[in-house]
Amino acid sequence: SKMPLRRPADGAASKAGIQQGDVIVKLDGKDITTYKSFLTALYSHKAGDKVKVVVNRSGTEKTIEVTLQEK
Question: For residue 9, what are the contacts with CB-CB under 8 A and spacing of at least 6?
């Protein structure tokens, strides 16, 4: 099963246009199938990196560029 965002997006995700309920299917070209695969892809980058995130929003895939920020 894919990973929908369960809380309102904030920070870099929100600024880039990722919305609550979007399902992340790819991050920087890597398939996202579990929360662990999301973290593995995310932590292979550092703050300031730009990554392409593919989300499924109501059945339509959208590619969004996100600049990663420190938490």
Answer: 18, 19, 20, 22
